[in-house]
Amino acid sequence: MSTERIADQTTFAYWVPNVSGGLVTSDIEQRTSWDYEYNVELARTAENNGFEYALSQVRYEASYGAEFQHESTSFSLALLLATERLKVIAAVHPGLWQPAVLAKLGATADQLSGGRFAVNVVSGWFKDEFTHMGEPWLEHDERYRRSAEFLQVLRKIWTEDDVDFRGDFYRIHDFTLKPKPANTPERPNPELFQGGNSTAAIANGGRYADWYFSNGKDYDGITAQIDELREVARAHDREVKVGLNGFIIARDTEKEARDTLREIVEKANKPAVEGFRSAVRQAGSSTGDKKGMWADSTFEDLVQYNDGFKTQLVGTPEQIAHRIVEYRRRGVDLILAGFLHFQEEVEYFGRNVLPIVRELEAQQVREPIGV
């Protein structure tokens, strides 16, 4: 168990359903919607039920059950302007953005939202999104080398004047952004998240990001990732926070929760899941060490397309709360939550699960680990 640094409290984020089809590729009913009005109501519910962050997904065209999509940065800004405290993270693909342009957008969003805008850099897995728009498709490690430069350029433009950067993918010459993000102790620069599961993603997170986002993992899986991430961060005199994806099925009884999970998998849209599995198979296997997104995912895992079932947040409020706190003890700072029925389940989580999490965390403060 990793105990190098343990957060005072677990932070919670939720997946913004700005993409149609819900978060499971299944024909089970999902009481959710990708439209703006639903998402504004959900964002306000979330910030009043203990959620500090929301993550807007990035999809550019129909794929594997996601027929319709709202663009992530504009949708994130809209949610920021409709809420008071929620921080909204926009997922973006290097290769489809010029980093100085995104830096300008981010600075504006920072000013308009009072410092609540953040960016999740995802290197891309869906080849067609690049090739259909006439953009080159790079192999896995090259995509992450590009993401490393992307993160560096964003940071430099937000913090420096007369920026020069000469990389293999981006060239910036004597560029000064004004206004910059506020960058005060109360409002630091927009937070940078690095998503991914590969060795290259962990290296980028440890060297350049504020946060590292992992797909769903069990205890052993996330502990190994955190150990590797911290080794990279220490080598560069840095500290990085960790977010973990988890699909939450909280019900009054464990049987009800397990039955819901079973129904999700039994009603999986098999052609869509198999199509997704075929599209992402190269994501992990194309890396040198065969470690990466979906490298060890089964069909059942891929029904929730970010491996959210692996985190095993399924059961009663008490069972889920205990598991969340165990992840915190292993170094997880944030749980990125997905739900079947977003509006009602976010409220259920805030009312029934979160108070137990906070009490368990308080008990650990009173009774430190190892005592």
Provide keyphrases for this structure:
371 residues; alpha/beta; TIM Barrel; two-stranded antiparallel sheet; 12 helices; 12 strands
Query: Main beta sheet: strand number and arrangement?
Result: 8 strands, parallel, barrel
Structural class by sheet pairing and helices: alpha/beta
* Total individual domains: 1
From the N-terminal CA to the C-terminal CA, the straight-line distance is: 15 Å
Strand content: 5-15%
Helix-strand string: EHEHEHEHHEEEHEHEEHHHEHEH
The name of the CATH topology is TIM Barrel
Radius of gyration: 20 Å
Mean pLDDT: 92
Instruction: Classify the helix fraction into a percent range.
Output: 40-55%
CATH domain class name: Alpha Beta
Placed side by side, the strands forming the largest sheet appear as 1-2-3-4-7-8-9-12
Low-confidence residue ranges: none
Considering the protein shown, what is the CATH homologous superfamily? Luciferase-like domain
Total helical segments: 12
Could you characterize what this model shows?
- By secondary structure, the protein is α/β, with parallel strands linked by helices.
- The chain has a single domain, classed as Alpha-Beta Barrel (TIM Barrel), CATH 3.20.20.
- Helices cover 43% and strands 15% of the residues.
- It is built from twelve helices and twelve strands.
- Strands 1-2-3-4-7-8-9-12 form an eight-stranded parallel barrel, surrounded by six helices. Strands 5-6 form a two-stranded antiparallel sheet. Strands 10-11 form a two-stranded parallel ribbon.
- Helix 3 links the parallel strand 3 and strand 4.
- Helix 1 runs parallel beside helix 12, helix 2 runs parallel beside helix 3 and helix 6 crosses helix 7.
- The mean pLDDT is 92.
